[in-house]
Amino acid sequence: MSLHSPPLPDEAALYEAALRYLSRFAATRTGVARMLERRIKRWSRMMEGTDMDQAALPDAIHQAQQAARKVIERLERSGVLDDAAFAAARTSSLTRAGRSRRAVAAHLVAKGVPPELVAQSLPDNPELELAAAVKLTKRKKLGPFAVERTTPTPQARQRALAAMARAGFDGRTSQQALGMEREEAEALLETLRSGI
């Protein structure tokens, strides 16, 4: 006995799915496209063993993919989906959290932000980069925020520099952040909170 096939995800259904997704997550064009593509693939897997003509399945999938593209264009036209706004907001929040320019860029690329928007959203501001590095030292209790504020051993200093490098900070910025006095570091963090 064959099962009845679930309805093809049409433009209206995909639009509703995209709105539900965007109400829960900040997303890029690419992120929404990936989500809609997963929904279409899930539907096509459900078609196996149903009464749907399997020869018509590729056309139905293509039709759903076209509907998904229309949904994305509609969301962009209405301003609900805006990669530039996503990149700016995410850059700001990640920088305040102590992420380096490199780490922020990698995050944006992974989320599907186009390279030109990644470049536009990352301010070339050494003071902001230093403030983000200091934020990392506070989170990891390094440099000015070390539990015991003594002169670090060469091994401890190397471990701290390695932690900063893994986070994407260059050597000069890392050394500057690690070498600050606590009061100076706290003042710099205050400027980061207020949005340099």
From TrEMBL:
Keyword terms, alphabetized: Cytoplasm
Any GO CC annotation of this UniProt entry: cytoplasm
Domain RecX second three-helical: 82-122
Main location: cytoplasm
Keyword Thylakoid: no
Compartments where found: Cytoplasm
One family name in Pfam for this protein: RecX_HTH2
Entry superkingdom: Bacteria
Family: Belongs to the RecX family.
Originating species: Granulibacter bethesdensis (strain ATCC BAA-1260 / CGDNIH1)
Name this polypeptide is given: Regulatory protein RecX
